[in-house]
Amino acid sequence: MPGITREEVAHLARLARLELTDEELDHFAGQLDDIIGAVARVSDVADQDVPPTSHPLPLTNVMRPDEVRPSLTPQQALSGAPAAAQQRFKVPQILGEEA
Amino acid sequence: MTDVIHRTAAEIAAQVADGTVTATEVTEAHLARIEAVDEKVHAFLHVDREGALEQARAVDARRAAGEKLGPLAGVPLALKDIFTTEGVPTTCGSKILEGWIPPYDATVTRRLKEAGVVILGKTNMDEFAMGSSTETSAYGPTGNPWDLTRIPGGSGGGSAAAIASYQAPLAIGTDTGGSIRQPAAVTGTVGVKPTYGGVSRYGMIAFSSSLDQGGPCARTVLDAALLHEAIAGHDPLDSTSIDAPVPAVVEAARNGSVAGLRVGVVKEFRGEGYQAGVMARFDESVELLRELGAEVVEVSCPSFDKALAAYYLIAPSECSSNLARFDAMRYGLRVGDTGGRSAEEVTTLTRGAGFGDEVKRRIMLGTYALSSGYYDAYYGSAQKVRTLISRDFERAFGDVDVLISPTTPTTAFAIGERVDDPMAMYLADLCTIPTNLAGNAAMSLPCGLADEDGLPVGLQIIAPAMADERLYRVGAAVEAAFRARWGHPLLEEAPAL
Amino acid sequence: MTVTDDLVSYEDALASYDPVMGLEVHVELGTATKMFCGCATTLGAEPNSQTCPTCLGLPGALPVVNAVGVESAIRIGLALNCEIAPWCRFARKNYFYPDMPKNFQTSQYDEPIAFNGYLDVQLEDGTVFRVEIERAHMEEDTGKSTHIGGAAGRIHGASHSLLDYNRAGIPLIEIVTKPITGAGERAPEVAKAYVAELRELIKALGVSEARMEMGQMRCDVNVSLRPHGREAFGTRSETKNVNSLRSVERAVRFEIQRHAAVLDGGGTIVQETRHFHEDNGSTTSGRVKEEAEDYRYFPEPDLVPVAPPREWVEQLRAELPELPRARRNRLREEWGISEHEMQSALNAGAIELITATIAAGADQAAARKWWMGELARRANEAGTELAALPVTPGQVARIAALVAEGSLNDKLARQVIEGVLAGEGGPDEVVEARGLKIVKDEGALGAAVDEAIAANPGVADKIRGGKVAAAGALVGAVMKATRGQADAARARELILERLGVQG
Ligand SMILES: [Mg+2]
Ligand SMILES: [Zn+2]
Questions:
Q1: Which stretches make up the Amidase domain (chain B) (predicted)?
Q2: pLDDT band at C411 (very low <50, low <70, confident <90, very high)
């Protein structure tokens, strides 16, 4: 199993929206490389014909009836907002897709 | 009144019910204890003095009105800061949630309130429950009441330290890879990870959804059972909640016995990395079980040697997704919103500033494990390991009623010792993790002090899923036998604070 | 918006290339509550008044699946001739976007609840084209952002955005076609007919009103070209949010012409998302997909698998309503109209309106006539869908009844429609307020007839002489004198009567 490079760590940080300094990048790259080296042993079973477990208990079909339950009040919903205006969450400019 | 803090929850509840003491007096005594010792221990992140007293007064009023009180009414409790509490700050040990006041109660919080349990405050924890020492908390570490320079375990170190230092008779923890049991082991207290789905996760801030499970922390097996029954049971707000009667844990705790039981010793849980004093106490526990009439056999669970690796892929993967919501848009910290920056930049700066190193490490590790080129090798394989571990358990439980092992390979290590060595830190959960992966139930209870450092050692009892009562039946028997042998509860040997 | 793309003519494009399409349609279900929480889905509610810890993505909150959401997904799957998965899971699709509270969308990935189906669509000339369905899966909608500080609410140049999460978590069914090949020059028509047929199907199932103008049904259009005779598909472009039937057709046509121009010029198509512009029918480049999006899908651990019991699926299959194409064929026969007329009614979104009008008492010819004539014209003028006009089938039926009983003629009826659309009230109120009743007063009508005869002696003589057809001129005069409110048929009778001629 290949190790992880500093560039890959920078890419992961971008994907995960984590601002990292250059020193942090170096630091994490080394640690992640160690950890990945250690956990890679799971891939010993990659070829085994074993069903993967995503849920520890074999439950299925847990559903609720389509019945309205009380919502929060808008005041409660917005109570933790870093910024709000017009009863909406105020966020910095969103770059990207033209809506 | 100072004596009330040394009583068990069962005793306090009985005395509140019969009027020997009021819930308000009990609460005040515990608040005074917190005042006196928590500067040293730092078990609490937030003490809700007013809320606690109000709840206590409500219990007293109900008693005065002649209402029948529940089995834990008026008993104070320390709640891990991972559960939402309406109107009371909830940080999950992270800067990113500093000052957040949830607009809703977790199901566990609600059930505690309904049971008349008095919530004293919120306890310290590793940030987002990621850690085994409570050192990753953004608000500073918690000390182990046995030795304040040592870790109290983690992630629920605050909850374990609170009960071990008599600041509360009960606490709630959560256990994703051992975060209830390992702190219990290193603080000489009792902690139970119920069967996955036994206790609602609604309002419990998710670390790793398929592994997380809330559970009781207490100083006695019976107290743990009483708390277990108070918080367990089906919750329609949690799709993974078990829709079946809660196992009769209190009854089991009142009827401790191992006579005729088959007990399996997991062969894989010993060897390199296991402290001699820990193994000595464990071997003694095996002998004790034999003396008490259990048949002890050795069992092998060969896939357990991959459990830690599987865990450190599954938990980070799920957490990388669960923690994506902390983006500075709707609640919590926002950093760098100077007007010129984009939402994406502000999110990135906030997460960079708001998360600690361990959280960042795990988020990146999980992001890596889930990415398209690596999914099969890492996440997919980890889930296969999970199946193999469940099969090991199934095979073992086909032969024995419960399994036992040391809870943790070593006693409490020094604060700072492993903080920048993630791999060493991760080893603390070696014996507890398989249970989280398979979803079954386990308990840790004190089995003595290690000779070399005089620190508590935990005995882990593991039961099949939905058979939580076996933990209590065995735990109560072991507890009673040790108590008889020692002449007093183990905690009494802890130095005074 | 300046369009810089070169285009080749549609005919030239088709002469060189074979278009391949893929259509992804998102349908917002009309459930009472959201997909994973009990918040109401009422349209037009106050901002953030229909939110809870779950749909706001608050720490600790958990999802629980809406049973009607699953049932609707299965019914859609069955109606699309899909197989229904005996066991499937939800998955998390991870990416950051402020309108998505958890920064992952709870969706389905490699285990959709319905897969491998088809939908037969009928083209204008009656040809039936089979569109194969890859999958239909369940997911959730995002919140709505309003961009402040930029031009016309555009995201570019905005200083900040305001977010309302009322829509976040509303159930969506995403329906994805297999690559649609073999449509040739009719590709735009096939795309439009498919979306139209799908919309009819969704409405017939009663799972959504599927109003495209309200965003209840949204279409992403993938187009690629390959030279005639080549097997391999070309690189595709993905035009997002094409939200009317006409736009679907135009977007496909535009992309075919644009791709052809790029390929003819020796260029290569970049895989990218594009935006459609209603004003001029063009598309412009959105985000280039430099690297394949890595959504890091994994099974949603907070939701347990969905394993629809076979009996349930079979019961849902048995309870499916008559599906739109079968129903249209039946109605076409009942109404006695041509394929083409039926197709026009379908394209105009008029079938439900016509049937409802018939149900309200109108005869089918009148119901069709008003919806496909005057009302279609008005909708076209106003640039809205027929169903969005402020007139109900009941009101149209009333107008038809007034005409049938002779109280209104067509010209007056059109004025009544104008009044109803202008918000002046129901048909009877408009008739009353505008004074539009046909003059039935025999005295007044008789006087007008007498006047017309007196004023046109030459015409009167011709009629007396047997040229009955000339009566039309006198009727015209009567109508003019009464400002159109006379009952023309009665006026004609009176004229002939006065002149002693048999009608
Ligand atoms: Mg989608
Ligand atoms: Zn909601």
A1: 25-471
A2: confident
Tell me how many domains chain C contains.
Answer: 3
Final residue of a domain: which of C385, C418, C434?
C434
pTM (2 decimals)? 0.90
User: Are residues C149 and C277 both part of a single domain?
Assistant: yes
Nearest to B382 by CA among B401, B363, B399, B365: B365
In this structure, the number of other CB atoms found within 10 A of the CB of residue B96 comes to: 27
DSSP conformational letter for B413: P
Q: B20 and B3 in contact (C-beta within 8 Å)?
A: no
Torsion sign, CA atoms B243, B244, B245, B250: negative
Contacts of residue C128, Cβ cutoff 8 Å, sequence gap at least 6: C120, C121, C122
- Alpha-carbon gap, residue C387 to C395, rounded angstroms: 13
- CA angle C155/C161/C163 to nearest 5° reads 120
Give A 7-26 residues with CB within 8 A of chain B: 8-9, 12-20, 24
Tell me, what DSSP letter sits at residue C179? P
For B216-256, the pLDDT digits (tens) are: 999 999 999 999 999 999 999 999 999 999 999 999 999 99
Active site amino acids of B: 80, 155, 179
* Number of other CB atoms surrounding residue C227 within 10 Å: 11
| Cα C290 from Cα C486, distance rounded (Å) | 72
- Chain C neighbors of B367, CB-CB under 8 A: 296
Mean pLDDT of the region B163-170 = 98
Residue A83 DSSP symbol: S
Residue C151 in domain = yes
Q: How many CB atoms lie within 10 A of CB A66?
A: 20
- Do residues C191 and C300 both lie within one domain? yes
Q: pLDDT for B455-467, tens place per residue?
A: 999 999 999 999 9
Q: Is A6-45 assigned to CATH 1.10.20?
A: yes
Same domain, C116 and C164: yes
**CA–CA separation, B197 and B412 (whole Å):** 30
**Residues 6 or more apart from C328 whose CB is under 8 A from it?**
C122, C342, C346, C351
Q: Is residue C333 part of a domain?
A: no
The domain segmentation of chain A, as residue ranges, is: 6-45
Q: Which two tokens stand for residue B413?
A: 């290590």
ipTM score here?
0.97
Complete domains list, chain B, with CATH: 2-256+440-493 (3.90.1300.10)
Select the more confidently predicted residue: C152 or C383. C383
The type of residue at C290 is E
Q: Which of C434, C464, C485 is the last residue of a domain?
A: C434
Residues C233 and C293 occupy one common structural domain: yes
Domain span at residue C116 reads 10-312
Query: C1 pLDDT exceeds 60?
Result: no
C64/C83 Cα distance (integer angstroms): 25
Question: Residue written as tokens 């005793």?
Answer: B11
The DSSP code sequence of B451-477 is TTT--EEEEEEEE-TT-HHHHHHHHHH
Among the partner residues B106, B326, B367, nearest to C60 by beta-carbon distance: B106
Residue C268 lies inside a defined structural domain of this protein: yes
Per-residue tokens: C360: 């309200």
Picking from B345, B384, B394, B427 by the largest number of A CB atoms within 10 A of its own CB, the best residue to mutate is: B384
Phi-psi region of A69 (alpha: psi -120 to 50; beta: other; left: phi over 0): beta
Q: For C460, list phi and psi in degrees, rounded to 5.
A: -60, -40
The reply to whether residue B203 touches residue C94, judged by beta carbons under 8 angstroms, is: no
Q: How far is C57 from chain B (nearest CA, A)?
A: 7
Q: d(Cα A98, Cα B2) in Å, to the nearest integer? A: 66
Q: Which of B404, B418, B422 lies closest to B458 in space, CA to CA?
A: B404
